[in-house]
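thought: fold this chain, then report.
action: predict
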Amino acid sequence: MRDLVYTGFMSLDGVVDSPGSGPGEEHRSGGWVVKDIEFLPEAFALKGEELADTTALLFGRRSYEIFAPVWRDSEDHAAYKELPKYVLSTSLADDALVDGWGPTTILRSTDDVAKLKEGEGGAIFIHGSAELARRLADAGLIDRYNLLVYPVLLGAGKSIFSTADKDKQRLSLRESAAYPNGIVKLIYDVVG
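observation:
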């Protein structure tokens, strides 16, 4: 069974975003990850550690459309180029996939993701894709959360956590660290 890992930058009130202020951030505080916090390499070491664990990437359609053309040509993301990629979308057409960014498969349902997890191989990482993360968590498919939590309250934005009335999920803290710039690394395994 493969682990499905959500990784992201998160405000203390649960808003997730990409590092810059791009088209995916549709609230007035978009880009908060790079605007107000002192950069400390050790606070971002998790991102490098994840590269070693990643054997495949999973995106929702919108995150794929934002990341694929940028990451394909990015030196910082060169290690991802030839990894298998999966996009969960009911509307993305095969001819809309980005050329030159390695093998990409479109999955059409949550059941397809469950089947992917049952296969051989290592961890599958989800970057961005807040709606996808909520959907997969509600289906009990997320195995781990790798979070860098920022000392900021935004009040608006995308969340990976559902507000639906559902059964309690327990998490087990695998690793944590706090950094002088206020960022806290939290790695949780989903245990039930």
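thought: worth noting. The first strand starts at residue 4 and ends at 11.
final: tokens above.
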